[in-house]
Amino acid sequence: MRILLVLIYCILAFVIITIYKMMNQTSENNSYLDFYGETLDLRRDFEKADNQSLIIVITPTYYRLTQLPDMTRMANTLMHVKNLHWIVIEDGEKKNENIESLLKRSNISNSYFTFKTKPGYPKRGWYQRSMALTLLRRTEFNNTNAVVFFGDDDNSYDIRLFTEYIRNVKKLGMWAVGHAGGGIAANLNVVKGKVIDFDVSWGEWRKFGIDMAGFAIHLDFVLKTDAIFHGKICGRRTPETCLLEEMHFSRDDIEPFGYETNGAREIYRFFVCRVATQLLNRMI
């Protein structure tokens, strides 16, 4: 009898915890909708794209000494990519005039928003990327032929990353990235076109051992779920794995790019390291 009671208590506790997590997750999503009235309009972008996939680049940014140089470098790459819309989200309460001027000069189709990180969230753009996903899901689409890419402003990108890889993603595309996780490169281990695991210098335990700029998702699959970067409840899964698991992806869904042949391969994205600048930022 005691064993039965203990079992019942365990089941009830599990149910209560599960319901609490679901309510917490739902309220976290709804909080984005309750406090902001921003909207996206991508109709012209889809019209210009014709039958080609539109690339939607999401970039969180924040004020620092290297913000304008970083964003300038990224703009100088993106302005050479056709059929692209750049969503820039500032972690702050007001827009940066220098960034506004840069976006205007670049002639890149863009949307510039400000969403200050809420208390309890990491400072690495989780909240800003989540806001961008929420904006996309609030947008009415007549055409969903687009690919979503999370491009951080402290990276350098080869134009071919966009034209050869991202543009051709049908579901979940991934590729090797340079200077990721403290190593020379983060690679996919691909066998017969399938990703079996990840060759990384940190976080081997992750289901998706990839850097933020090492994958892209077709818009159809972004719109099918309400998955975001849950800064408060993600735990050790890291933002990349956190999002992809919330979207119900498995490794079988991955489309590896750049692994069509054996041997040496080119890397189209690098993280730009600035230890000296980081120290200087702390001093001022």
UniProtKB/TrEMBL annotation:
Required co-factors: Mn(2+)
One term of GO molecular function: metal ion binding
GO CC field: Golgi membrane
Bilayer topology annotation: Single-pass type II membrane protein
Active site: 240
Keyword tags: Glycoprotein, Golgi apparatus, Manganese, Membrane, Metal-binding, Signal-anchor, Transferase, Transmembrane, Transmembrane helix
Pathway listed: Protein modification; protein glycosylation
Protein name, as recorded: Galactosylgalactosylxylosylprotein 3-beta-glucuronosyltransferase
